[in-house]
Design brief:
Blueprint lengths: L37 H7 L3 H20 L8 H22 L8
Length: 105
């Protein structure tokens, strides 16, 4: 116990997530990677492939929703929403195609 009345942080005997033996530092809830082994930290970061797959899935769902809209009966709010959603999805897909800074293409 510290002078302020809070419990003193005790280093965990291993990774706070997978319990891999070793000393990975104190677990601080304000710091997402604290107390975790390098493998758990790396697994928590999405890869570019994973992000690309997610963007393509969302764009496909957005396009399918826009295609299913009946233009004859759609309200102006529905049309504006669908058009905005398609625009955001298209922008996300175009960002995937843009060259990544630092990569020689």
């Amino acid at each position: 116990m510290t002078a302020t009345g809070h419990a003193a942080a005790v280093p965990a005997p291993g990774c706070a997530l997978c319990a891999t033996p070793g000393s990975f530092g104190h677990r601080d809830l304000a710091e997402p990677g604290s107390g975790l082994c390098p493998a758990c930290i790396a697994a928590g970061k999405p890869t570019r492939e994973g992000l690309e797959r997610a963007v393509v899935i969302v764009a496909g769902q957005t396009l399918a929703g826009a295609e299913s809209l009946d233009l004859a009966t759609a309200t102006p709010e529905e049309l504006a929403y669908r058009l905005g959603a398609v625009k955001r999805s298209l922008r996300s897909v175009l960002h995937l195609l843009a060259p990544v800074e630092g990569e020689g293409r």
